[in-house]
Amino acid sequence: MVGTTLREIRHEIERLASDDGDYYVVCARSGERPVPVAGQRFATRTAAADAARATEQYRAALRRYDPQLPYYDPIVRQEQPLHVGDGPDDPDGGTDPVPQQPVDHGGEADDPLISFCHDVSGAVFEALSGSEHDEAETAIMETYLAAAEATTDRNTLCLVLLEAMAAELEAHLTVDERTRLLRDAAANLPSVAAAADPVEASLTYLDSLSLVRAYDVVREPRPEIDAWSVSLRGYAIDCDGRRFPTLPIGIDILRRTSEATAALGVTDVTALGEGDWELVVTSDVEAAGGLVCLTEDEP
């Protein structure tokens, strides 16, 4: 299965990584640090070059799930370049492309929203591949490929993929299964610092990507739980009027929480029309769920 390869490649990159290495991998064209090597550092140029090749393998495998996945041309960079002769592992210093001549796949660097959407979908596919939810994985692919035949705009297509994921995960997995899967997927995304207020931090980030046009959030004091009343304007993912795909919001909030097992859920969703929504994010364990998809009439 492709997914097994994804997990094995990620583990190989983690094996190569070092906490205090001077080398890292970026895209030669955009300067981005692509998944799954984002945030990783390497002690030697050789290890970084191996990780760059593994990154190409990972993204080639993932592209079988998501044909629109952006191309990157990984190169090795050194934070503090060594001078010639300073070490046997770096005889030339500077920056080496991997492969030696990066291939130009055309186009400018991806819009940050597109990159985020593909990173989220890739993280979910990798998490699915390590689970026993083959039926959900197949259903997502069938729904997405059918939509792809009718969608020519690349920006729209990456949003369609997230909507398809949310709908099929809701249909095929229980609440507990969805929560576990989303936690695994959040761990596959590039790491970010834990936020004192993960909901505010996440919405600020998603607003900067234009996943939402505007938002308001109020943290409400409630006995023994945290709760946030959220108002979203111009949510970019198309909805059917009552079903709200919370997947990209849920996964981004989870990766910003200080505790990996913290209870989080979305409740009290209200559709206002034209991509506008109101909802409540809560840490109430009895309300856990709703981080993938929610319908307006759910409690």
TrEMBL record:
DUF7552 domain location: 5-79
InterPro entries for this protein: DUF7551 (IPR055973), DUF7552 (IPR055974)
A Pfam cross-reference name: DUF7552
Domain DUF7551: 113-295
Disordered: annotated span: 80-111
Record-given protein name: Uncharacterized protein
Native source organism of the sequence: Haloterrigena salina JCM 13891
